[in-house]
Amino acid sequence: MAAAHSFLPHSSSSYLNPLKTPPNSLPSKPFLFFKPSPKPFNLRAVLSEKASSLPPQQQQLKHCFSKSQDGFLYCEGVKVQDVLDSTEKRPFYLYSKPQITRNFQAYFDALEGLPSIIGYAIKANNNLKILEHLRGLGSGAVLVSGNELKLALRAGFDPQRCILNGNGKLLEDLVLAVEEGVFVNVDSEFDLENIVTAAKIVGKKVRILLRINPDVDPQVHPYVATGNKNSKFGIRNEKLQWFLDNVKSYSNMLNLVGVHCHLGSTITKVDIFRDAAVLMVNYIDEIRAQGFNIEFLNIGGGLGIDYHHTGAVLPTPMDLINTVRELVISRNLNLIIEPGRSLIANTCCLVNRVTWC
Ligand SMILES: Cc1ncc(COP(=O)(O)O)c(C=O)c1O
């Protein structure tokens, strides 16, 4: 059974750079029902009158859901039961738009002063309204398929701020990526071959980043660890020269602008990001020494989340960025980060009614 989507929206979704303080005045109507979108985006919005009045720093750490003394669950001060009662169909996912904003803002604030792109990893949740909201906040998008790219375009993302990842990209998806001018990460020998073919078909040069496997243990579950040597993702460092030689020989089709690594997901120790960044800037030095104009360091996905609701104090985006800030500045780089779950996971709950017990 598919669930619908309801939102507790922020007062305004658009505050592009410079993004400092989100506007906090709320429209006068307490409940706002959006016209349902055509399937599969059956959306409904419910607007909280009581958006948080906490200062931004505290807001970053605040969870939008709380259990009140009356025993009911509240989201941004709105009783979830009231939303359920005012909603025709269930189950539905209830999202807090202010929480999405706060999550994005935490990365945005951490990156202040650094030329950067926050690319939301669409795989974390590809709801169109969420994509549009994040795009309105200034987010780019990280994609793993042609369909995700189409979705990102439909949500209005700037293709120049989109990155296509994946170790099995299809030629047709690469063709679309080249046409739209998104960054493409090179993951393997055959991936490079396909990217060159796509560039030839479109007749356009493509901006690429080499996804290097830095062989750093992310200390996470093996199923989400992708940055150690035995993982199927990324280029092994001993193969790097082969890739550089090939990129050189296709310099009319390929423009190597950066390097990428993604160690894995659910990382909760920020030193791990720094260890990888140290290795990556060394690769950048080597690659630049061969005449390539490397402008971007992409450090992959964002922080882990409190999956088990233990109340564990997790590092913030500021903690993460602080571990790599000086390295990025020292090499005059643009930083790309690709958070997924840390932007969206704590913003939503599934609401349903028990029908029989
Ligand atoms: C290449 C890449 N970037 C970004 C992400 C998003 O990671 P996270 O949800 O941990 O931020 C993933 C997750 O699988 C990924 O594989």
UniProtKB/TrEMBL annotation:
Q: What CDD domains has UniProt attached to this entry?
A: PLPDE_III_DapDC
**Can you say what this protein is called?**
Ornithine/DAP/Arg decarboxylase
User: Is Lyase tagged as a keyword?
Assistant: yes
Assigned keywords, A-Z: Decarboxylase, Lyase, Pyridoxal phosphate
Q: Which domain of life is it from?
A: Eukaryota
Tell me its cofactors. pyridoxal 5'-phosphate
What Gene Ontology molecular function terms does this protein carry? diaminopimelate decarboxylase activity
